Records
---
Amino acid sequence: MQERGRHYFPAVDLAHFTLEAKAQVEQEIARDFSAAFTGIKQLPEGAKLGVYLAYVYYRKLFNRIRRRSPQDLRQGRIKVANTEKLALLVLSYLKYSFNWW
């Protein structure tokens, strides 16, 4: 979580990152995602697809993080494979194009 000098949760003591602390961080992130989706729909047409794609990608990453234990998160980076990114791109484009989102 501090890979490459980044610290994503400044208010969290990573040495004592418990399941309860993780759940609290996840709740905050889930609220942010909910608000972000509402905001995306209000963006100008020229910006919606790109921002929506980023939203979908980070939502996928967040879901992977949710399935990991606090100890697993300290072990290394959580990633989305390139093939999955391509699938997310196609699916996001279709959902956006047909207004299925």
---
Amino acid sequence: MAMKKIALHWQILIALCLAVVTGASLDQTFSLFGVTFLSVLTFFGTLFLNALKMLIVPLVMASIITGMMSLNADTLGRLGAKTVSYYAVTSLVAILIGLFFVNLFQPGIIDGEPARHVIGLSSDTDDVVSRVGDKGASDIAEVLLRMVPPNIVTAAANGQMLGLIFFSLIFGFFVSKLKGSVAQIHKDFWQGLLDIMMMMTDLIMRFAPLGVYALVTKVILISGVDAFEPLAIFFGAVIIALATHLLIFLPLILRYIAKVSPAKHFKAMLPALLTAFSTSSSSATLPITMDCVENRSGVSNQVAGFTLPLGATINMDGTALYECVAAMFIAQAYGLTLDVTTQFTIVLVALLTSIGVAGIPSASLVAITIILSAIGLPLEGIGLILVVDRVLDMCRTSVNVFSDSCAAVTIARLEGEKTLLLK
């Protein structure tokens, strides 16, 4: 009797557990035949990430254009309004959840004193400030300029997703206006390209356990466990807030608005969630997210192709929550009086930056500097959170991806689709 194949999400979960054990057992200097284990992990982790990123541009274009070909102006307007409304509401709720828990735990206060003197600033602070540069709130306005790139090929090469999405939306809409044989040729081409990209995604997903193992083991080897102790309360506050949004708020949307089974959707999304956790990139995980939402949750390409690429670019629930908690933590650590006005400022700026700064490198760090500037704190405060930022980045990316998938399912159900998640 043939042995039953282990499901992909279990393979990835096993790889994740092995990564934790390996990372905790070895150190960075471990080598075999003169080759360090860390360099091997870096090679395979980068290879897996590159393979995923290789799919993004053709997959996003084919998916959006294929979805747009069957939409009319009324349907597009309705889908757009529902998608943007969902993203705005869930991001705002995520920020408020973060605000609640950071006020509850007050990680920036230790024994009644601001934590800055207890924790000390990271030595990497200057490096962060130089990476962030002179970014400020004015960068949010550049979103509109990034939306209309002067060269679509350059935008695609540089990973400027917003411009690529905008071009694909317009292109797909006008493809739907074509008539006769020319229209059919275009529809067959883009549908064929989408089918090919999904098959390539399936192939790369087979190597996901190896990629996950390499990426996570590398993080644990470099970060270690001891570094987390001084920031344990901050780390815990972020994790609990993210878990509340992931395990309580989003499932409530699935059950009472989409009227589907949250448990079924969690199971369907496990490969994407574990990949998001390992890669820390919503964009890199997008091919797997689309595969899970369409093939495992049963959402049409018309809805998934519109909501998911857009969500991977502007919907950052986990990031928005983290920005709020981090800014509040730094404010507490510096002994800043956090009145209602200050907290409202943090909430508002976190909401705007989670959307507007998504396309900038080191997006979360840039967003936090904008918030710190808005409430009058020095940029060196970022040094307080650098030690745990990488691991928390993995966690908040998983929340971002799950929220995107919930948007696709919810909007599909509101559009009258029958998904595979019905109770």
---
Amino acid sequence: MDCNEARPLLDANADHELPAPDAQRVQQHIESCDACRRESDNLRALSGVLRTAPYHRAPASLRERIMAGLPAMNEPVVAADAALPVAAENPAREGQGQAPRQAPKRGWLDRLLDGWRAPQGGLGWPGAAGGGFASGGSGGTGGGGFASGGAGGVFARGWLVALVVAMCAVAAGVALNLRRPADVGPFTDELIESHVRAQVSGRDIDVISTDRHTVKPWFNGRLDYSPPVEDLAASGFPLEGGRLDYLAHQRVAVLVYRYQKHVIDVYVYPQNAAGSSAAMPAKLGREGYAIAHWNAEGMTWWAISDAAPDALGNLETALKARLQSGSERTEGG
């Protein structure tokens, strides 16, 4: 993370509003950047001052002005249909030198009401005095119809607004779920939690070594399979060691690589032994982390890092090339 990424997050970090993964990345950047650390200290000091500032109650005069501007409780509410052109109310006045008034512009809600009106009381409104949706039909003459100015009309209009808001919320939820990528499954959540937990705890490596002949034998007796281990330092991904972790209800091997200043955890286990990767894209991102998975040498590999997604693609290419060269067989690993 650089300054351009960290600066917009400093406010939320100072108020402890960031998710744990983002907070960790921001904190790591702050510790290595004097300018951002000073900015973060200033924000925390300002937040502390604001929290201890005295509370001032609004004056009574402000409340009185607000209440005076509100309509009275018994003031009649005029529906949009009440404002009709003069010519429509009394056609005989046309041509007598008096121009008809224009009806006010009607909003989206009025147009929606027009589409729902049913003359002759075809669609009764429960609880309305006349039983009709519109005041123009025989079912709406009772004054309590959907579009009338009575209390029933006001209630119905408010009900319709609430219904439209609810329908919009449902539509938005459906749209978000349709666009939700397949990478939001429980397995990737568990993968991210495992990676973050290891970084936060400071025990991200159980066996520290750049020698694959030290890391690979360390897993013997600790797992029921032997994970392939390769040092990819020549490709820019030096091996730093390995650890055991628990993922998808089983123990798995984790190979820890370094890319520049980024840690890359590579989880490796026999194909179809844990997790379901068939329905997930090969490369995905979650909460600021890049994630990639592939199959090779009878194993499923999952890589996760806060490095750019291209880094994981390059690591995958280098690892597959190394495995295809048969390094473990030729070196007697």
---
Amino acid sequence: MRDAFITAINTQKVTTDWINSLSENLINVYTPGYREKKFTFKTFLDGAIGDAHLRNLDQGKSSPGTSEENIYLEGSGYFVLRNDKGRLVYTRLGEFKFDGEGVYRSSDGQAVQGYILNDKGEIMNGAKPVDAESFIDTAFDGGAASVPTTNIKMWIDPSNGKYLGKYEEFEFKDDGILYGKADGGKIQTPLYKVAIINFHNPQELYQVAEGQFVETEASGKPVVGRGEVRGGLIELSNVDFDANTSYYQQAQTQLDLANGLIKSHKQLLQNAIEMMNS
């Protein structure tokens, strides 16, 4: 026979954890790039026991960004950032801008990674282009087919006010390629391809900051991500507000029941002690 008091105590604890998880989701409904947390239960023997916190990896809706330099990834994968210690960090939030030195950076100053292209749009590995098949095959050390990523730079030449001394403007296209545009847009030259990386088991990425993750042994090595990159947009939170509100109400009811059982059990115990002492 199961102990009702132990069952209620266990249920109270795990339901509190569930409510905290749901509260975090609801608070971050409008936080760009936020990944919804999923709370699951693995058993109800002796009360509910919480399972691992999973992240919802579904696509968040797009929204106009804070700048035309922002980008949105429609598809699977992550943008790649390199911090000041050289470590690679992965994120869905493309709230990026070029700094005063022309380096493309995240809002917290990490350098967005990409691949250098030749004028045919081919990824360059040193002085040699990499064919598309080799590029898609695999990705290691932050670069597909062992091609190292690099900081994306669009510095402005002070002598003529043009990007890289040649281009009046730039544009990100759907394939993640950054084009330099000259002669009123008649000339469009591919310059960089934004690095998009994915993992065989992205649930096992380790979160180091809100919306930022690093590789782990369980996540597996990085592989090439798939998707379209759209300029001037960012990804919103993927929290389902209605579902989380409903779950919150269920969790609150479950907590009230557990608290009621604990209170009743304590009262019965108190009554028993008083009868024994009378």
